[in-house]
Structures are given as structure tokens and as C-alpha cells.
Design goal:
This protein is of the alpha+beta class. It has one helix spanning 261-320, and strands at residues 5-6, 13-14, 28-31, 39-42, 47-49, 56-58, 72-76, 79-83, 88-91, 94-97, 110-114, 118-122, 127-130, 133-139, 145-147, 149-151, 154-159, 164-167, 171-174, 188-192, 195-199, 204-207, 210-213. Strands 15-19-18 form a 3-stranded antiparallel beta sheet, with no helix packed on it. Strands 1-2 form a two-stranded antiparallel sheet. The N and C termini lie far apart (212 Å).
């Protein structure tokens, strides 16, 4: 048609206003106003014309001098990406050295960063962080035997964790606290590496490593041995063993609570006083019985004495006349 232009293939017609170079350029086609069929091909940002002046090829931006990135540049199709070295953070297109989370830490042994802002304290082998002071380390052993911490300059100076004793060969052996009857009010005592655990029965609670009778709202014990000072098990061994969680209720019978020493002394004194009172009463009854018998013998002997005296007076009466 008169208002259409023949395309480059020589067979098809372009729409009115459409320049035939649109099919020839890969990205953009710019018609040349000075030439009826003249045009120029252009490429998008990040690309450049290839040797044929029609196709577009990527430009390696990272090869430019100077580099468009402050540290690391990674080329991509039609662009590039900037990255920072480890230990740096990208802030507004710049790489800023990241703050060390372990800077100014108070870890006794070593600090281990966690992410960009957190950290944790770690201890050397054979040591563990103190539960309530994680920046400090203490000797730790979860077996029956562990190597002792010895001074390299003085092999005779060795230390063991709490609950362990130094054995021959610079080894620390676990102390069996249950051999010392450290849980007098418990069903049983369970020895653990470096510590122990008192197993309480129904109605008993864990107090200071031993078992105590559970108190009601009225202040009376619910467990075995309640009242009269029974079930007071506050003297649970020497030292300060860690308080272990109270085991669950078992079907075994509860142990009889041990009497307090003051209660035992009071019972002993009361028993002795009762025995003395009984003996005194028995002696009094025997004495009273003896007095009654003597009086009875005296009364029974009076008539006989009167007869004898009367007989004597009768025989002496005529002589006087």
C-alpha cells in the first residue's frame, strides 16, 4: 500500500509509521531523518553493539578502571553486583568494617562470635562454664574418672572437680556420697558423677539435698512422720551438693521419718520419770501394808494380856486381906 513500507525481507510490508529497522536491531532502532531508509541500532545500559552493529553484547563492568565497587565486583548480564570482604558490612554502597562482638568481652578462656552481634564464652577441654557465671570456667567431669588439672611446672600440684578425689596417676575419681548416709530421710540415694541425688517418697519434698515432710497450709506435715518433730531432715550431709529435681511419686512405701534428737531426749526422760514414780508408789504401798499388819497383831494380842493380868490380880487379892 502507498502508506506502508517494504520490509527488509522484500516480501512483507511494515505498518504505517513503522520503520523496517525494528526487525533488524536487537534492542532499539533509531530512524535517520536525513535518509529515507537510514537507521541506527542502540543497546540498553550495560550492553554495547556487537561487531555487526545490530546485536547487543554484555559489557564487563568489573573490568573497568577504576572498579565500580569498593572491594569485590561480580559481573552480571547487563550489570554488576558489589560484595564486601569477610568482616565488613555494606552500608550505603560502602564496605564498613564490622564491629567485633567479642571486643571487650570478659570471657575467662576464649570468646566465640555468634553472628554479627552475639558471642559466647567457651572453656578449655576438661572445663565447663559456671551455670550462673557463663564467662567463668570450672573443672567438669561427667564420668567416674577424669584427668586432673596439674601444673606443668609442678606435677605434684593437681586439682580435681568438686565431688572428686585425687587418685594415683594424676586421675580424679568420683566420690560416692551415698556411702556416708547423706540422705537419711529419702527412699534411696543415687550417686552421680561429682554429686548425688536423694530420691524422696510420696509426701516428701527436696530440701537442701535431703527429703523433708511436705507442709500443709496449717503447718502440719502430710508425709510419714508428721507432727512431734518427725520428718525433719534438714541435716542432709556435709557440703553443699547441688539441689537435684525431686523425682516423681513412686509406689514404694514412704520411710519412717527419723526423730529429732530433742524429741528422743524428752521421751527418754519421760520414760525414766515414769519408772521412778512407779517404784515410789510400789514402795509406799508395801510400807502401808506393813503398818496395817503390825497394828493388827498388836490389837489381836491385847485380850490375852488382859487375861493374864486379871489372873495375877486374883491370886494376889487374898494375901492382902
Amino acid at each position: 500500500p502507498a502508506d506502508a513500507a517494504l520490509r527488509a525481507d522484500g516480501r512483507s510490508c511494515a505498518a504505517p509509521g513503522e520503520h523496517p529497522c525494528h526487525e533488524l536491531c536487537e534492542h532499539f532502532c533509531i530512524p535517520d531523518a536525513d535518509q529515507p531508509h537510514g537507521y541506527s541500532c542502540w543497546c540498553e545500559a550495560g550492553y554495547r553493539l556487537a561487531a555487526d552493529q545490530h546485536r547487543c553484547e554484555d559489557v564487563d563492568d568489573c573490568a573497568q578502571v577504576p572498579s565500580p565497587c569498593p572491594q569485590r565486583c561480580v559481573n552480571a548480564q547487563g550489570g554488576f553486583k558489589c560484595h564486601c570482604y569477610p568482616g565488613y558490612d555494606q552500608v550505603d554502597g560502602e564496605c564498613v568494617k564490622a564491629e567485633d562482638p567479642c571486643a571487650g568481652n570478659d570471657c575467662e578462656y576464649q570468646c566465640q562470635p555468634l553472628g554479627r552481634a552475639g558471642f559466647r564464652c567457651i572453656c578449655a577441654q576438661g572445663f565447663a562454664p559456671v551455670p550462673h557465671s557463663p564467662h567463668q570456667c570450672q573443672m567438669f567431669c561427667n564420668q567416674t574418672e577424669c584427668p586432673a588439672d596439674c601444673d606443668p611446672n609442678n606435677p605434684d600440684s593437681c586439682q580435681c572437680p568438686d565431688g572428686y578425689i585425687l587418685d594415683e596417676g594424676s586421675m580424679c575419681s568420683d566420690i560416692d556420697e551415698c556411702d556416708d548416709d547423706i540422705c537419711p530421710n529419702a527412699l534411696s540415694c543415687r550417686n552421680l558423677p561429682g554429686t548425688y541425688e536423694c530420691v524422696c517418697g510420696p509426701g516428701w519434698v527436696q530440701t537442701g539435698g535431703d527429703c523433708d515432710a511436705k507442709m500443709t497450709s496449717e503447718g502440719e506435715g502430710e508425709g510419714e512422720g508428721e507432727g512431734e518433730g518427725e520428718g525433719e531432715g534438714g541435716d542432709g550431709g556435709s557440703g553443699q551438693p547441688p539441689v537435684s529435681p525431686t523425682p516423681g511419686v513412686t509406689s514404694s512405701p514412704a520411710p519412717a521419718g527419723s526423730l529429732h534428737s530433742g524429741v528422743l531426749l524428752g521421751i527418754s526422760i519421760s520414760s525414766l520419770a515414769l519408772v521412778v514414780a512407779l517404784l515410789a508408789l510400789l514402795c509406799h504401798l508395801r510400807k502401808k501394808q506393813g503398818s496395817a499388819r503390825a497394828e493388827l497383831e498388836y490389837k489381836c494380842g491385847v485380850p490375852a494380856k488382859e487375861v493374864v493380868l486379871e489372873h495375877v490380880r486374883t491370886e494376889q487379892a487374898p494375901q492382902k486381906l
